[in-house]
Amino acid sequence: MFSDQPAVSFENPARDPLGREHIGGRLVADVDALLLFWEFRHNVFRNEGPRTVRIPYDVIDSVVFRRTMGLWNPRLILSLTDPAPLAEVPGANTASATFLLSGHSIRSAASTFIKLTEFRRSEAREQRSASRLDSLTKEAGL
């Protein structure tokens, strides 16, 4: 779960009165994909271990840092073009999820994380475009 790559920690409170969907974890900008490590917190109903979701960079639509009232409620909004990676994450919408950030120096950690994620996302999309162009030129016999 720990890496040298830029990462942000999050803690999303439960949306239900019994607290069954309280999750916490970490988003890590790994070399090949964005890694989402999460687990249920303070939940007596589920005794499950941590889960890992691998999100390829080419399906990331945007990563945005938002704050409410100055430094209160810093959050990271992750939007995807494919909803499949976030299907099992509690609190995730169809193709996006909001993570309430926690920890120290949140703004600088989020800034570094977003910059690296955007860079790797552009590299993945460029690689996908180049491979598509190569396959099209091979099909055309050029």
Flag low-confidence runs. Answer: none
- What fraction, in percent, of the residue positions are helical? 10-25%
Structural class: alpha+beta
Q: Under the CATH scheme, which class?
A: Mainly Beta
Question: What distance separates the N and C termini?
Answer: 46 Å
Radius of gyration: 17 Å
Beta-strand content: 35-45%
Mean of pLDDT:
85
How many individual helices? 1
Tell me the name of the CATH homologous superfamily: Pleckstrin-homology domain (PH domain)/Phosphotyrosine-binding domain (PTB)
In total, how many domains does the architecture comprise?
A: 1
Order of SSEs: EEEEEEEH
Shape: globular
Q: Quick one: how many beta strands?
A: 7
Strand order of the largest sheet: 4-3-2-1-7-6-5
CATH topology title: PH-domain like
Largest sheet: 7 strands, antiparallel
Q: Write the CATH architecture name.
A: Roll
Please give the structural blueprint:
Elements (H helix, E strand, L loop, with lengths): L6 E6 L10 E7 L3 E8 L10 E6 L3 E9 L3 E9 L15 E7 L3 H35 L2
Antiparallel strand pairs: 1-2, 1-7, 2-3, 3-4, 5-6, 6-7
Summarize the structure.
This protein has 142 residues and is an alpha+beta fold.
Describe this structure in words.
The protein is of the alpha+beta class and 142 residues long. It has one domain: PH-domain like, CATH 2.30.29.30. It contains one helix and seven strands, in the order E-E-E-E-E-E-E-H. The protein has one helix at residues 106-140, and strands spanning 7-12, 23-29, 33-40, 51-56, 60-68, 72-80, 96-102. A seven-stranded antiparallel beta sheet has the order 4-3-2-1-7-6-5. A hairpin with a 3-residue loop joins strand 2 and strand 3 (33-40). The longest helix has 35 residues, at 106-140.
